[in-house]
Each structure stands twice: as structure tokens, then as C-alpha cells.
Amino acid sequence: MSAQFPVPDEVLHSTFLAVIGALQESSGAERAGLFLRDFLVTQLVGKDLFEMWSVVNPMGLLVEELSKRNVALPEPRLTRSAGAGTVLPLYFVGLYSDKKLLAEAPGETVLAAEEEAARVALRKLYGYTENRRPCDFSAAEQLGLMPSNPSATHKGHVTPSTMSSIS
In 3D, which of 105, 110, 96 has the Cα closest to residue 66? Predict the structure, then answer.
């Protein structure tokens, strides 16, 4: 229960993590993983992560992620443009790192194209491209990572951290 309505995102976030942590402590990592699969991952089926998660500053996040991975910072370059003097101009901006193209995207302004290129680079960095295959949870069951029968015991365990990497 919260004194505030609507409930702030921070409260929802900490409550969700507390429930997962309590479940992991009381029932183990496998049960917590099953809970995440059954109640969280099923809500994400058929949805685009980047439609739900609006990145406020995509270039800033990209710089942060590349810095963590010890990759050279991105350098935006105008690669193509058309109709600059018209009502509907089009600009293509490419983001380069160590002289390699990370991503390229269009926009009505150079800044909009740069932001979209940063979003495309983040998708690539996270392995979440538009042509990505959906997660196959039946393969996880066959590998023993997730039991098809909840009472069955397996050598592999699914933890909340591995679930986040699967989804």
C-alpha cells in the first residue's frame, strides 16, 4: 500500500525487487526464476522493449555503455542529406567509434537523426535488433535451465539476474 496515488515508479520498482528477493530467499533461485518467467516475461511477449522504455538521453546512455566496455566514444557524422532547403528535409547521421560505423539513422534534423542513431546503436549493443528472434523458453527447458515440471529438480538454476539476460 502506498500513501501516494498514482504509485510512483520508484515505489513500484523497489516493491518488485523486494518481492523477487523475498521469493528467492524463501523458495530459492529456481522458484524466483520461474516466477519471473511466468509473470514478468509473459507480459513482454510481442512488445517492443524500446517502445515501453523511452530513452530520454540516448547519446548519454550510449556514451556511458561504451565507456563501461572500454570502447572509444561515439563520433556523429552527417553521412547523407536531401532536401535541406525544403519543407521536409532528410538527414542521415552515422555514429562511428574507432573508425567503425556503429549505427546510422535518418531524421528531419541533424539532432533528431543523431538521437535515432544512438537508439539504433543501443539496440545493437544490447542485442535487441528489429529482426531478433523471440526468446525460446522450450530450449531453456531442454537444457535444464528451466523445469517443465515445477516440482522437478535440475542441475541448472535460473536466477533473477540470468532471467534478465535471457529476456
Answer: 96
Q: Which fold is adopted by the domain 51-125?
A: Double Stranded RNA Binding Domain (3.30.160)
Contact predicate 105/93, CB 8 Å: yes
Read off the pTM: 0.65
Three-state DSSP class for residue 19: helix
Mean per-residue pLDDT, 10-36: 92
Contact 153, 23 (CB under 8 A): no
- pLDDT over 70 (residue 154): no
Domain positions in the chain: 9-47+137-166, 51-125
What's the Cα-to-Cα distance from 30 to each of 13, 100, 106, 113, 163, rounded to whole Å?
Answer: 21, 41, 44, 43, 10
For the segment 51-107, what is each residue's pLDDT rounded down to a tens digit?
A: 888 888 999 999 999 999 999 999 999 999 999 999 999 999 999 999 999 999 999
φ, ψ for residue 52, nearest 5 deg: -80, -35
